[in-house]
Amino acid sequence: MKNVVVIMSDQHSSHALGCYGNSEVHTPNLDALARRGVRFEHGYTTSPVCVPARFSALSGLYPSRTGCVNNATPLPIEIQTAAHYFREAGYLTAFIGKMHPVDAQTHGFDYYIDFGHYYDYLGRKLEVFTKGMQADDSGKGVPWIDVYQTPEHHWSMAPLRDAQSTNLPEEEHFESFVVREALRFFRTYAPKRPIFLFVSFLRPHTPLVVPDRFAALYDWRSLSLPSTIAEDSTGLNPYLRSRMIGGLDSQAGRDLAKKHLARYYAAVSFVDDKVGQLLHGLNEGGNDEVPVVCYTSDHGDMLFEHGMLSKFTFYEASVTVPWILAGPGIPEKTTVSVPIDHTFLLPSLLDFAGVDVPILDGVSVRPTLGGQTTETPVFSEFFVAQDKMMYMVRDQAWKFVRHPDGWRQLFNLVDDPLELNNLAGADRPEEVRLNDELTRHINDIEMTTINLEGPNPRV
C-alpha cells in the first residue's frame, strides 16, 4: 500500500503561486512538485472560510450536508473522515498542524498534534508568540476563545505589539514545528506500516508574521497590483460593496496594498520553503517508497482583486486553491483543466492508494488524468448568516453565483477571466441551466442519504 501525504496551507490563493502564472512570488518547491506531477488549473474550495472547507476536504462531503457551515460549527462526531477510511484499510493515520476542529474531537486520527502541543513546546516563549500574532481566535493561532463561554479570557488581555515580527527564531515558528513533528512521525512509523499523514500549516493566513529572510525576498515597490483594485462598486449588491476597501484609488492606498502584498508573498515563500523541507525529509531515513503527495489550501485570498482582501466571496481569488498531485502512478508535467473541488480530495487519495472508494459527494480525479472530461459541475457554499446562504456553481466555462438577497452573478471565465462583466439577468440559457444545477445540488443534499457513519464508525 502506498503512503499518502496531504499538505494544506491556510488562505493560499492559486493566484499567488509561480506554477499558476504568478512571476513575482518565489515558490520553487511547489513549482517543482507541480513539474513532477499534475497541476489542476481550476481547484475550488467548497466554502471560502476555514472550518467548513477543511472538513469538506477531510470528509468528501459538502458543508451543507455535514452541517459544518462556519467557523463556529464543528463537524458532527458521527461523520467519518479520511482517517477512518484509511485506518480501516490498515493505515496508521496522523494529523499534524492546524486542524481548526472547533471542539475536542480528533476525528479518527491515531496521532494528532495541533496548536496546544505547539504551545507546550514554546513554554515561556508562548507570550512572545501570542503578542506578535495579535489574535483572538484559532484562525490566527491562539486558542478558541469564542468557544469558551466566559465574559473574559486572559489570552485576550495580553498587550499587543508590532505584528511584523514575533522575535522567534525560524526554527520556533509554527510551520517549522509542524515539519519537524511530521517527519518524526513519518520516520518512526513508515518503516512499519503504511501511513496517511495530513500536514497543515497556518500561513499565509494573516497576521503575516514570517522570518526575516523571507520578507527580504520582496521589495514592495516592485510588485504589481491587480488591474481590478479600484473597481467601481456600481451594480454590486450591498454585501460585496461592504467587502471593498476604501482608499485604493490613491497613491497612499496603493502603497499600503503593495506592502501588504509583499508580506503575503513572504508568507507564501515561507510555506513553500517548509514544503520543500518536508518533501525532502519524507524520502530520507531509510524509506524507499515515494509517497503520494497532494498540496492544496482551504481557501484563497482576494489580494485586492475587485478592491477586496481576505475571503468570503466567490470571486476567483477567494474561491480558487492550488491543487497539485504527485507520486507513484501519477503522470508528470501534466495540467488538467477540468474544474474540481474539495470533495474530490478524499476519493482521489483513496483511489490512488488502492483503497475502496465509498459513495461521497465528490469523485476521484483519476479519470481526468487520462484526458477524460466531465460534465459534472463543482460547487461552493458560504453561509453568510443563519438561513442566509450564498451558492456558487462552476462548469467548464461558466460560473454562476446566487446571493441570499436574490442578486445573481454570471461570468464566462474563458472570455472574462477577471470577472468584469456580470451577464446575469440577460435571459441567457447558461444562467437558467446553472441555476437549475444549483437547485438540484441543494435538493440532493436535503433528500439524498449518504451513510455518513460508515460500516464501523469511530471517533
Describe this protein's structure.
With 459 residues, the chain is an alpha/beta fold. The protein has a single domain, classed as Alkaline Phosphatase, subunit A (3-Layer(aba) Sandwich), CATH 3.40.720.10. Helices cover 30% and strands 15% of the residues. It has helices at 28-35, 50-59, 63-66, 82-88, 115-122, 126-133, 174-189, 212-215, 238-243, 251-282, 316-319, 345-353, 366-369, 429-447; strands at residues 4-9, 37-40, 43-44, 92-97, 111-113, 195-200, 292-297, 323-326, 334-336, 340-341, 378-385, 388-394, 398-402, 408-412.
Which helices and strands occur, and which strands form pairs?
Layout lengths: L3 E6 L18 H8 L1 E4 L2 E2 L5 H10 L3 H4 L15 H7 L3 E6 L13 E3 L1 H8 L3 H8 L40 H16 L5 E6 L11 H4 L22 H6 L7 H32 L9 E6 L18 H4 L3 E4 L7 E3 L3 E2 L3 H9 L12 H4 L8 E8 L2 E7 L3 E5 L5 E5 L16 H19 L12
Parallel strand pairs: 1-6, 1-7, 2-9, 3-10, 4-5, 4-6
Antiparallel strand pairs: 2-8, 7-8, 11-12, 12-13, 13-14
Helix pairs in contact: 7-10
Shape: globular
Return the CATH topology: Alkaline Phosphatase, subunit A
How much of the sequence lies in strands comes to 5-15%
Q: Using the CA coordinates, give the radius of gyration.
A: 21 Å
CATH architecture: 3-Layer(aba) Sandwich
- As a percent range, the share of helical residues equals 25-40%
Strand order of the largest sheet: 5-4-6-1-7-8-2-9
Q: What is the residue-mean pLDDT, rounded to a whole number?
A: 87
Q: Count all strands and give the number.
A: 14
> SSE string, helix = H, strand = E?
EHEEHHHEEHHHEHHHEHEEEHHEEEEH
Give the helix tally. Answer: 14
Calculate the terminal CA-CA distance, rounded to whole Å.
Answer: 24 Å
Please, how many domains?
1
CATH class category name:
Alpha Beta
Poorly predicted spans: 136-165, 454-459
Structural class: alpha/beta
> Describe the biggest sheet?
8 strands, mixed
Q: Write out the CATH superfamily name.
A: Alkaline Phosphatase, subunit A
